[in-house]
Every structure is written in structure tokens, then in C-alpha cells.
Write a structure and sequence with these properties.
The complex is a heterodimer.
Chain A (H helix, E strand, L loop, with lengths): L1 E6 L14 H10 L4 E7 L4 H8 L1 E7 L6 H10 L1 H4 L6 E7 L4 E10 L5 E8 L4 E6 L5 H14 L6 E6 L10 E6 L2 E6 L1 E9 L11 E7 L8
Parallel strand pairs in A: 1-2, 7-8
Antiparallel strand pairs in A: 1-12, 2-4, 3-4, 5-6, 6-7, 8-10, 9-10, 11-12
Helix pairs in contact in A: 1-2
Chain B lengths: L1 H16 L20 E3 L8 E3 L2 E6 L4 E2 L2 E5 L3 E6 L8 E4 L13 E4 L5 E6 L7 E7 L1
Parallel strand pairs in B: 3-6, 5-10
Antiparallel strand pairs in B: 1-8, 2-3, 3-4, 6-8, 7-9, 9-10
The chains are: A alpha+beta, B mainly beta.
């Protein structure tokens, strides 16, 4: 299974592009080969259209700064670099066929300083794939978010947990399928099948997309 | 123009309503006249703090560390980006420096010539703010 994790930086670029970049993000995502994409800092109104562009199923959760969302969207679509992260936020999981989402679960990890949610989807083979954007600016809080997410899926024999964990060395009793900076893909019951790759994304986002490949190792995924 | 003004007003309002971690710090201004900043490519210092005539600040975990830096006039302050994500160092009040985009491992230096308090930010990351206190 090929897993992509990418923090979309609320649909912005570095340096700032000064315009809506939905189509560029959609084209980039559609052009890469992955089976599951874990996206963080997604403009909430993008999740469905990104999935459509990628011919994928989607499951998403709202994270922080989403009060008065229509107003935030109105500004963000016109001045994304003005409103920045105040444009609202979501995490989204995209899944391409032949894989399929059979169930999803969201666990709220904290509301302060920012609302954080661990969001997972269960695939047809029983594997849970969890998307996490941990609290930024505090290693202690980020590690706590990782620990809470793992606790919520402690009963999953086949687990992939990835995202922007906001720590370089997450304290987790899981195998690493790959990492770049604070972006990680960790797994239980899966082993790395190929070296992790950082994909070229031009100036899109402040994070680079990370693509890893895992194969069912010890503790094979459950059969559907 | 009208749309721009509307967007600005709404953005400010929504920013205030956000529940994020941003916290602007205000510093006393009126201490202009700083020397031109200089970007450096020398190897990065390994730790934050003061060493001789250089004061080091790291950019890590989407934060400046330390968040308040004390330096003397004539000392060089060097910022090092240790994050995998790009940052910049931009004065908001009390000064007028602005670094180029700093990728991982890149540094930026600035040597103040007057005492005062400068608040600075990374313009890419909301809430990434810090203060530089310069004394004689």
C-alpha cells in the first residue's frame, strides 16, 4: 500500500501566491501514485473536490478555526494569504480503488490551544489508517496527541498512523514506514516496502509531500 | 478595492474569533536606524543562546526559540531554521528587517545599532512571533 501524507498549509504556497491554489493542489495530488492520502490543514470545502480530482473516496473531519465558516471561505478564496490559517481547517483521508473505506472514527484529542482530532478509516482488509495533525509549538502536547491517538486505536492489530505529528521523534511503539521532518507514517502490522520519497511540489504548501510504501508484515491485516 | 477592504475587515474579525495559538506581543517602538541585515550561509550554530558577539535563535517546531532574545547593540543575532518547513524572520514593530525565505539549515543575521524592542514574526506561520530586546 502506498501512503501519501501532506500538510496542505491551508491551500497556500511559499512564497505566497496571492490567489486560490485549489486547482494546482488538485492537479498535484491527482498526478501522484498513491493508494491512501492523508491530508492535513485542508480548506474544509476542498475535501470533496480533491477526492473527485483524484478519483478517490474521501472522509474528512473539521479541526480548528471553523466558526463562521462561510465567511472564512469567502475571504480565503479571495485572499488566502491574508486570512491564512483562519480560513478554517480540516483533515481529509482519500482512498483510491481497489481499496475502500468501510468505517470511520474520529477522536477529539484536545480543544486547547487548538482543536485536534485523530481521524481514522477502516479499509476493507481491516486495516485502520489514521490521520493526525498534532498540536504545534509544544513537543509535550504533540507527543500527548500521538499517545492519545494510539490509545484510541490500541485494539487495532493492523494500523497505519500518519500525518504532521509536529515532533521529529514520536514516542510510539510502531514501525516507521518513513518520515520527513515532522511528517511521519508509522505502522503496526506493516513494514516498509520501499524507501520513503519526498515528492516535488513546486512552491505548494510549506510541507513537502511524503510518500511511503508498506507491505503487510508481522501481524497481517485482518481479512474483510 | 472594495472587495479587498471587505476581505481585510473580515479576515481581522475572523482572526480574532479563531481559537488558535496566536498571541501577538507588542513591543515598544521608536528604535529605528538598524544596520542592514545580512544573510549567511555559514554552518549553523548548534544551540540557542549567546556566544561571544553572536546571539543564536533557532526556528523549530514552528516557533522561535527563545521567544524573547536579549542582545546588546553591535552584537549579531543569527536565526537558524531547523524545521523542514520554510520560514522567514520579519520585523513587525521597532525595526525593519526581513529575511528571505529560509529553508532547513539556512541562517539569517542582523546586527542592531540602536537599543529598543523589536517584535518579529514568520509571515508564513500565524502565531510564530518573538521579541528581540536590544540594550546598550
Amino acid at each position: 500500500m502506498r501512503i501519501l501524507t501532506w500538510n496542505l498549509f491551508h491551500g497556500r504556497a511559499v512564497p505566497p501566491a496571492g490567489r486560490d491554489l485549489h486547482d494546482r493542489f488538485a492537479a498535484a495530488l491527482a498526478g501522484w501514485e498513491w493508494d491512501v492520502a492523508l491530508l492535513q490543514e485542508v480548506p474544509p470545502w476542498w475535501a470533496g473536490s480533491l477526492a473527485a480530482a483524484c478519483d478517490a473516496q474521501v472522509a474528512s473531519v473539521l479541526t480548528s478555526r471553523n466558526a463562521l465558516l462561510p465567511l472564512r471561505r469567502w475571504v480565503a478564496e479571495r485572499r488566502p494569504d491574508l486570512i491564512r490559517s483562519n480560513g478554517g481547517g480540516a483533515n481529509a483521508i482519500l482512498v483510491r480503488a481497489p481499496l475502500a473505506i468501510t468505517e470511520q472514527r474520529a477522536v477529539r484529542l484536545r480543544v486547547w490551544p487548538e482543536r485536534r482530532v485523530a481521524h481514522g478509516v477502516r479499509l476493507a482488509d481491516g486495516t485502520w489508517v489514521v490521520n493526525l495533525h498534532a498540536q504545534v509549538g509544544s513537543e509535550r502536547r504533540a507527543q500527548a496527541d500521538v499517545a492519545r491517538a494510539l490509545a484510541a486505536w490500541s485494539d487495532a492489530p493492523s494500523l497505519i498512523l500518519g500525518g504532521d505529528l509536529n515532533v521529529r521523534d514520536p514516542r510510539a511503539d510502531l514501525a516507521s514506514l518513513g518520515a520527513h521532518g515532522v511528517d511521519h507514517v508509522l505502522a503496526r502490522g506493516w513494514a516498509p516496502a520501499a524507501p520513503a520519497r519526498v515528492l516535488e511540489r513546486a512552491a505548494l504548501s510549506d510541507h513537502a509531500p511524503l510518500l511511503v510504501e508498506g507491505s503487510a508484515g508481522t501481524g497481517r491485516p485482518l481479512e474483510a | 478595492m472594495k472587495a479587498t477592504l471587505s476581505a481585510l475587515v473580515l479576515s481581522l474579525a475572523l482572526g480574532a474569533a479563531g481559537c488558535g495559538s496566536s498571541s501577538s506581543k507588542s513591543g515598544s517602538s521608536g528604535s529605528g536606524g538598524y544596520a542592514a541585515p545580512k544573510q549567511q550561509t555559514a554552518p549553523a550554530p548548534t544551540a540557542s543562546g549567546s556566544s561571544g558577539n553572536t546571539v543564536s535563535v533557532t526556528l523549530q517546531n514552528i516557533a522561535f526559540n527563545p521567544s524573547t532574545t536579549h542582545a546588546k547593540v553591535g552584537q549579531t543575532i543569527t536565526w537558524t531554521n531547523k524545521d523542514a518547513v520554510p520560514h522567514n524572520v520579519t520585523a513587525k514593530t521597532g525595526g525593519s528587517f526581513k529575511s528571505p525565505t529560509l529553508n532547513q539549515g539556512q541562517t539569517y543575521s542582523f546586527k542592531p545599532t540602536k537599543a529598543g524592542t523589536i517584535t518579529y514574526v514568520c509571515t508564513f506561520h500565524q502565531g510564530m512571533t518573538a521579541t528581540l530586546v536590544v540594550t546598550k
